[in-house]
Known about the structure:
Helix 6 links the parallel strand 5 and strand 6. This protein has eleven helices and eight strands. An eight-stranded mixed beta sheet has the order 1-2-4-3-5-6-7-8, with helices on both faces. The chain has helices at 2-9, 63-66, 69-75, 95-109, 111-114, 128-138, 179-189, 193-204, 219-226, 253-265, 284-298; strands spanning 23-27, 36-40, 48-54, 79-83, 116-126, 161-165, 240-245, 270-275. It starts with a helix and ends in a 5-residue tail after the last helix. It is an alpha/beta fold.
Amino acid sequence: xxxxxxxxxxxxxxxxxxxxxxxxxxxxxxxxxxxxxxxxxxxxxxxxxxxxxxxxxxxxxxxxxxxxxxxxxxxxxxxxxxxxxxxxxxxxxxxxxxxxxxxxxxxxxxxxxxxxxxxxxxxxxxxxxxxxxxxxxxxxxxxxxxxxxxxxxxxxxxxxxxxxxxxxxxxxxxxxxxxxxxxxxxxxxxxxxxxxxxxxxxxxxxxxxxxxxxxxxxxxxxxxxxxxxxxxxxxxxxxxxxxxxxxxxxxxxxxxxxxxxxxxxxxxxxxxxxxxxxxxxxxxxxxxxxxxxxxxxxxxxxx
Length: 303
């Protein structure tokens, strides 16, 4: 009881002692109970490169602690911020995106208290979280999606690198015919499968780089395109680590391979990591080497 009170007491403190147990259930936005996060800090004084962790469907902000990811990150000198967020619905498809940006703005607003290095913020998403991280990092300006957040993002492009594991990315050659991807879109949008596949047929006939500029596309097609990362990908995007389980039982690894190819074709630095015998769940032990090889190359040491 005393320890719990001790940890919660530091939520509003001016300086957070380093190397504590996680600071949990910190409020970052106006939508409760979802807008809460956990902070995991390494030993030392900082500033720490910071990884914003975005879980997938049917789990919560403790997911990356359960996989051992947060312990691995802090052991290597990275701060980790794992968020809870609202799931997308037909009424608000961008709710999770709005919340993720709100959590990112919270990191900026609290960087001095927690010794976050805001020049080195990395997004790491799993499954749906990976798809969300990918869309946010490729958009030219994330700020219009921020919603009613109590803190503001100071700059438009503020992600140093992106890690996505087990995501689906809306690639025409894989996603548009993948029953899992179509079912997810159907679940969130409330649209019938026939209407979704008709939208995909239209988009498949247009290069992704022209999805946002082709005139006279139906409004629904335009809405779909704006929420697919390939519509936004260009050479200004941050480096990506695209990871996937080799025997993922939900999304096929060909999804990651196709997205990696698309990133490279657009001039984006991309590293593909297929985890042998890996399922959909993050296999942190098998992912460790690829993760830190990528992170240590992407992050700039603090002065």
